[in-house]
Amino acid sequence: MQKLxxxxxxxxxxxxxxxxxxxxxxxxxxxxxxxPAWGDVGAGITLAPNAMxxxxxxxxxxxxxxxxxxxxxxxxxxxxxGETLLTVDRTKTLQQYNAAYVYIHxxxxxxxxxxxxxxxxxxxxxxxxxxxxNTETDKAQVEFADGTTFDADxxxxxxxxxxxxxxxxxxxxxxxxxxxxxxALAPASPAIQALIDQPGMHIGPGKMVVRYPLRKGDIxxxxxxxxxxxWEEDGWSIRADIEELKQQFEGWCPAVQALLNEIRPGxxxxxxxxxxxxxxxxxxxxxxxxxxGDAAHAMTPFLGQGAATGIEDAVMLSRAISEAGxxxxxxxxxxxxRYERTSFIQKESNENADRLQGAESEMYxxxxxxxxxxxxxxxYDCVTEQV
Length: 387
Prior knowledge:
By secondary structure, the chain is an alpha/beta fold. Helices cover about 30% and strands about 25% of the residues. The chain is globular, with a radius of gyration of 21 Å.
């Protein structure tokens, strides 16, 4: 298609990747973000090889690798004894998949993507909170809370878990999974250096602790998963009490206690993990609006594929627009290429929580291991996959 005016709503990982891909393809791309300013927000993120192929495609893969951490191994350990139950070798990942496996601070990845978007000529607007999108006219008209509007040939809703763009579509309310997650950061120290050097997780009945290094090992990213009832609030910025977290993991092995003792004050947040079902009727409306990332298919974190699938969406949507003759065809090809895969990952991620935190044996579900690698998710290539 000829040069288009495209509005992307939401400057998360999926939105920024789409902005870069579309700007590199020659389109006039405008990015609208509700936040009034950029900040050093969030914590760690895992970028599996399927995510890195997309980042390589938009030209930032090498910088992501230089900024992040590539683990040599990952260790799954017993909650009480600390014994290693499974060791995953990551030294051959690049050779096997022709793409890296990287841990990176979300804010560092965000900075890389913003800079790349600006280098490629995208226009970025902050403090622009979406009210609605009107598709009744020739072009889609984006309406913002400040009273301003913007007309575009295509509006891409990349506004995340609580997407306002998704309100244009038939949605179902999410359901609480029974799992609560706590995230925290611990600065490097001798007490936890061995755990920084050997990223992985401790798993036990109904609970799990995930750890991996960020910023060249200066910080350890921690996520504690528990099963609870009576609290179902979903959001990344809800502060939690460290003592509450310590009580949840009382009796766990000395390594976990060392992690809890080294957590940075004020760095603990919690959220209820809610599961979403695939949207009925697809992700596009009137050949003028479509969704990507969490706005289209929000996922639980138990396969580590939320950001990856958003990156895949962004690349394949850009490719579909470049290859199709009309916008209607482009969006049909995009959804056709993406809907089945993302729905499958949503389902498997929901089920993986119960596998990893089972109580049926000392292996806690590892005998029936269905993770992102055994499911073949790493092999997917959004650059060459048919769209």
